[in-house]
């Protein structure tokens, strides 16, 4: 145990304190932090920001490790001792980066920690859609036997279009290529990276969409990527095409996607992230049998969870020890804030 709880009051024994916006992280990360004179405290996932802010203020935390929930300006300003925010992962759309920057507090990401895991989940979702696994499963369980009328789609020779070619996009491309898929990439910030790996780079999303059998999202949520995939762009895709999003909710306009699926504009979609998390129980998406939904767990495997926690812990330790933040990992205010 890293702390004791007595009538709701937590007592640490070390010289420095951090708060984790979740109820757990990997034990090896806790041990590492403890070894560097840092106590670890927890705030349940998706607690309201004002509750997290109150805990941060009461504990006078030196660092914040972000897993889930909104880390807004109130949370960031709550402790005058706060010196570093580290993301347990790579997406920072739930952190007000601009507010942190105003206070001179770096926001650091665990770069590369979950690339393989998310890519695996992407391919698993894409294959499930292409092979129509869920509709067939439901049909058989209803007592139907669609074998006489069913003809499946081939993965070999299918084209997958990737929007974004960072660590996750690159891993996804390699796996797709190994399955015999043709890979095309749109990434305006690194077009040469895909070409260097032997893949086709396309500068215009609209030009790419009509050719893809699978569209897979791997870009961050920013002011320019919000609602990037809307009704107009969905209308440019093949009726037989499917869409996978293991990046961030908000990149796809969910209302437009629901209408596109209901109307047969595209054949199916798989979402691991949503504009609001947890998503509303009355979402029109839930009525659609051509949708697969998972609860933003693409990067949550035993291996990646350990890596995310340890890298985040190392960022915190380094900054609290007086070192400059790792420039490759720092999130800038140009990225979308919470």
What does the model show?
The chain is of the alpha/beta class. Helix content is about 35%, strand content about 15%. Strands 10-9-8-11-12-13-14 form a seven-stranded parallel sheet. Helix 8 links the parallel strand 9 and strand 10 (about 200). Helix 1 (about 25-35) runs parallel beside helix 12 (about 300-320) and helix 5 packs across helix 7 (about 165-180). It is elongated, with a radius of gyration of 22 Å. The two termini are about 30 Å apart. It comes from Shinella sumterensis. Belongs to the D-isomer specific 2-hydroxyacid dehydrogenase family.
Alpha-carbon distance between the termini?
32 Å
Residue-averaged pLDDT: 93
Strand order of the largest sheet: 10-9-8-11-12-13-14
Summed up, the helix count is 12
Q: How many beta-strand segments?
A: 14
Family: Belongs to the D-isomer specific 2-hydroxyacid dehydrogenase family.
Keywords: NAD, Oxidoreductase, Plasmid
Organism: Shinella sumterensis
Protein name: Hydroxyacid dehydrogenase
């Amino acid at each position: 145990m890293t702390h004791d709880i007595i009538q709701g009051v937590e007592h640490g024994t070390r010289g420095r304190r951090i708060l984790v916006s979740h109820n757990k992280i990997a034990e090896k990360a806790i041990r590492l932090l403890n070894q560097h004179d840092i106590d670890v405290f927890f705030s349940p996932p998706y607690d309201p920001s004002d509750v997290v802010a109150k805990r941060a203020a009461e504990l006078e935390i030196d660092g914040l490790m972000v897993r889930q929930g909104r880390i807004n300006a109130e949370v960031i300003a709550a402790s005058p001792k706060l010196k570093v925010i580290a993301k347990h992962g790579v997406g920072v759309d739930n952190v007000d980066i601009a507010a942190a920057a105003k206070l001179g507090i770096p926001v650091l990401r665990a770069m590369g920690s979950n690339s393989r895991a998310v890519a695996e989940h992407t391919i698993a979702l894409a294959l499930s859609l292409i092979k129509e696994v869920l509709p067939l499963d439901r049909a058989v369980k209803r007592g139907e036997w669609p074998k006489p009328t069913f003809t499946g789609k081939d993965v070999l020779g299918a084209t997958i279009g990737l929007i974004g070619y960072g660590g996750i996009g690159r891993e996804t491309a390699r796996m797709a290529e190994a399955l015999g898929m043709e890979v095309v990439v749109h990434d305006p910030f690194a077009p040469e990276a895909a070409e260097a790996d032997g893949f086709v780079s396309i500068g215009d999303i609209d030009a790419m969409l009509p050719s893809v059998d699978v569209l897979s999202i791997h870009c961050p949520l920013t002011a320019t990527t919000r609602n990037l995939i809307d009704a107009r762009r969905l209308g440019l895709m093949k009726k037989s095409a499917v869409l996978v999003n293991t990046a961030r909710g908000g990149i796809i306009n969910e209302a437009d996607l629901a209408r596109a699926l209901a109307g047969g504009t595209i054949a199916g979609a798989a979402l691991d992230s949503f504009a609001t998390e947890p998503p509303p129980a009355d979402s029109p998406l839930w009525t659609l049998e051509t949708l697969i939904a998972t609860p933003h767990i693409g990067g949550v495997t035993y291996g990646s969870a350990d890596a995310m926690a340890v890298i985040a812990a190392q960022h915190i330790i380094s900054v609290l020890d007086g070192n400059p933040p790792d420039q490759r990992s720092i999130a800038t205010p140009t990225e979308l804030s919470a």
